[in-house]
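Example A, followed by Example B.
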Amino acid sequence: MAKLRTLSILLSLLVPAHPTRSPDCGGILTPSGLSYRKSGPRSPTLPSVSQPLPFCTGRNQITSVKVAELSLSLIPDAGLRLSIDVDLGVTPVMRLSILADFHVEMNPEGNLELVTSACKPTVEEMQSTEETERSTPQFSLLRDPGNGGKKICLEVSKLLLSPNERLMSLTAPFPVTPSCQVQYVPLAAPMFSEQGITISLQTTFQVAGMAIPLPISPVPFSMPEPVSSSPSHLTLAFSEHFYTSLFFALEIAGAFNMTIPSPLTTATVAQKITQMGSLFQEEQPVVLQAVFRSSPRVVLEEGKAALKLFLTVHVGTGAPAFQSFLSVNVDMSAGLVLSVASTRMMISAASHRELTTDSLRQDDLLEELFLPPIREAVPAQMNGVLSEGIFLPHISSFTYMDVNIVIHKVRKKTFNLPPCYI
């Protein structure tokens, strides 16, 4: 089995890599997701203003800071706009308004990074209630903070440190099994539109610390059109190729190579296959070993997903070392059940849909003898490997809630997860 695994890894290196980097999954953060706020007050950490700002006189010490309004909006084809109104505890009361634009870049390390495009602070003197009752018409005085604006904008740029640290966690490698890791790599800076922020990702897998080349996707992937009536905060889409690549990586890692116990012995097999009697003088337990003769394949259909398995089952005895006396090719098709828990997609193989052997004279006999344990053991082994789930693209301090999973078979074969709430 160890030799087979080594050979499998070496053969995988002969599979041609992607000639160009292409996405196999992605996500759309909608405007409602962008403006999502947990219940209760939620104020940002604002610049320290315990010292008088340059646009205030020395006697106008700022004693308090109160966020009056905060909003974050999309600028199509550009980026984000942050608007903050802050009431400063001075006499007279002043309102500091900050309008800052951001865009997203890819840094040399391949991480996404929020960068300030523009920043404009203004100050407005607010009249007290008594002053507004005595004055007609009401008015206020707008000021340009001058050099103080540079300090404010510098502090605003510091507010991006925490979001950028979280964006870096998007590209962190996540474990699938002890020897296999998955990583979601952005291919370009996100696209900003009225529908939301769209990001395209390429999945990469590492086995034993080495990146493995994946088969080339036969169908180009692109994000599905967002549904304007959907209340979702985030829509994720995964291609058919994503799932096939996942099972390919697990196959290369040897996660699905399995030894299957059997209730049979050489004596009981000899009752059905008379030639067996001359091979084994003493009764020995029969053991099955299953390996992939070609990579698993996932097929997305409307409303359902199917896993196609192409196995070679070696039948033999296990003592003192495995000795095969019969091999049979077995093709299986199992339904996939998908769900989401926290930041992981849970995948399990349902009961088989089809299970066939290759064309041998003893087909019916082989099915009677060997297929029952295969039917039970193969899905159980796969479910054991997948029991921890597969990490979805996410940043730190993030979880998926109220997830609705929809599987579509469309021209570009995408798999959607709407909606996901942060």
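Example B, a separate protein, is given below in the same form.
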Amino acid sequence: MKKLVLALSLTSAFTQPPAFADDFVPAEVINKNYDQLTNTSPRASRLEGINLSSYLVDENGQVSDIEIVATAGQKKYQREAMDYVSKLNYKSAKLNGETIPVAKTITVSSQNLHTGFSNDKASRGFFNDYEQVSKLIDEKKYDEAKSRIDELENEHTKNTVEIVLLAWLKSQHSYFVQDWKSFDQHINEAFLFRGNLPDQIQKRVIKNALQWFISKQDYVRAYDAIDALGNIESITFTQQNKEQLLAQVNDIYKRSGDIKQQIELLPKQAVLPLLSKSEVALEAQMPLNKVQLRCENKVVNYDTSTIDKIVISQNDVRCGLLIKSAQAQTVTLKQSGDSFL
């Protein structure tokens, strides 16, 4: 019998340190308050998953209203991620001395640790196929590469390292065949869960993601990408390098006009686009189940039938708009007004 240990890692979803208002004290974890789950299995599994959760911390420091806003790998781990987050305890956030509800975001990796072998690296079978697909893409044999990607996903993609490497590989294929919808999905997955990647690939992911975020006017993520480059220990990224990149993005951001995004909603699956303008309008063809402004210092619920305009002030910290629909549909998110990042 092999012991199967479920290891849940708690990591920040974002790297950019927020600039808090002087009278705001953010919520802080005071007790992880979870039990390690141990099971036995006659057949050890390499299947793993990663989930990005958005949730609220109320005035008493209790977690509620947990939503999975990004996922990769085995979807069965979504429930475990939500159970884990629900057991976190916080020291409440305060504004002007009063406790307030706030929003937080966290990444939970569900990893299977085994006594008989290591599961923290890509398998030889995965790596061999990965190299072959990369070569096919370099040779512009895109149809054959797509077929091999499908085989790689079905036969060898199991643990978190392989899951994120596959997302990166898919993003490269999508880029060269100009499938921008798929590219957006996969470069976002690779960027959000980049901590599972080797440093050199992390660097490539971040640089690709940075250019993509700028092109689609996702400025919050662009700033995150710049910060992420400085967090790779084995990569030289000087303060001068950072200041140069920041100056370029700042110039583009300050000159940017209105931002219009088309967001595809899946049934009962929440999304959390991050906001970089002071006024937000949301248009949907069918009724929405949930619309909620989630900031690190504010939470606002909206009546989905009477949404007019969503306003963000300069004192609001890292805001996203959580959107959820019972039916699949495409919604339009328009951002205008002042730049405040």
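On Example B: The chain has three domains: 2-114, 124-255, 259-339.
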